[in-house]
């Protein structure tokens, strides 16, 4: 290897190392979950999903300029080939989602990493379990996003997802009714025309820092610079 190639390799290693963020997934639930992830920009992490037992954590190196989401799959059963099904958050019936997104309703932790990082917890696709985000080691506002309320017991009947006689998730009004008013589409496709509804207000009252509908930016999008993040489930 020529000297200039060696020096370029060292520069790239140094750059990537200094820019990467550490994400720590923490299962604070009483049962096993299967975290899923989908990338909007950048590499697919942990092959799209894995298993996480109660009380366990997992560290992931996430590159600069990555964007994507994390969610929890619950009530999953997989065979030896990695095929199966989850009660909530399923991604194509696979243990490792491999680029498949989650089936709503599911709580989403969303990130866009750049010179300034943006992050939120969204209920736009509905809710299954609480998720909290704790930034650390960064600068700027870097506010935590947390909610410990279980929204399933207060979910309106039309939005409930039942599994084995138990409410395991709560649909968004958009998923349940698929109308422009609830999906912020068509004539309701702007912040001026799409306003909070009775359904989104239920979510917002329980979890004020969560995204409750498509244009809930003002109180639900947070920023931090050069931070690492702990994502706590339950």
Automatic annotation (TrEMBL):
Signal sequence extent: 1-20
Keywords for this protein: Disulfide bond, Secreted, Signal
Cellular component GO terms held in the UniProt record: extracellular region
Disulfide bonds, paired cysteine numbers: 29-234, 76-86, 91-97, 142-224, 147-207, 155-170, 174-183, 184-194
Pfam families in the cross-refs: Thaumatin
Membership in a protein family: Belongs to the thaumatin family.
Principal location: secreted
PROSITE patterns named among the record's database cross-references: THAUMATIN_1, THAUMATIN_2
A biological-process GO annotation: defense response
Gene3D superfamilies on file: Thaumatin
Protein name stated in the entry: Zeamatin, putative
Lineage of origin: Eukaryota, Viridiplantae, Streptophyta, Embryophyta, Tracheophyta
Compartment(s) where it occurs, according to its Swiss-Prot or TrEMBL record: Secreted
Keyword Disulfide bond carried by entry: yes
Classification via PANTHER family: OS03G0233200 PROTEIN
């Amino acid at each position: 290897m020529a000297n200039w190639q060696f020096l370029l390799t060292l520069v790239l290693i140094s750059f990537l190392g200094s820019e990467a963020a550490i994400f720590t997934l923490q299962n604070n639930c009483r049962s096993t979950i299967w975290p899923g992830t989908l990338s909007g920009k950048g590499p697919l992490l942990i092959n799209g999903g894995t298993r996480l037992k109660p009380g366990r954590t997992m560290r992931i190196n996430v590159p600069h300029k990555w964007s994507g989401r994390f969610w929890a799959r619950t009530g999953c059963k997989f065979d030896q080939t990695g095929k199966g099904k989850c009660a909530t958050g399923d991604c194509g019936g696979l243990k490792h989602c491999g680029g498949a997104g989650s089936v709503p309703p599911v709580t989403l932790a969303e990130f866009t990493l750049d010179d300034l990082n943006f992050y939120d917890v969204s209920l736009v696709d509905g809710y299954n379990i609480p998720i909290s985000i704790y930034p650390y080691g960064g600068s700027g506002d870097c506010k935590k996003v947390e909610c410990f309320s279980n929204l399933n017991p207060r979910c309106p009947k039309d939005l409930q997802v039942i599994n084995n006689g138990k409410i395991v998730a709560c649909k968004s009004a958009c998923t349940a009714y698929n109308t422009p008013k609830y999906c912020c589409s068509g004539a309701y496709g702007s912040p001026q025309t799409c306003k909070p509804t009775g359904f989104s207000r239920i979510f917002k009252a329980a979890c004020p820092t969560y995204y409750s509908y498509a244009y809930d930016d003002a109180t639900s999008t947070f920023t931090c610079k050069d931070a690492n993040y702990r994502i706590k489930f339950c």
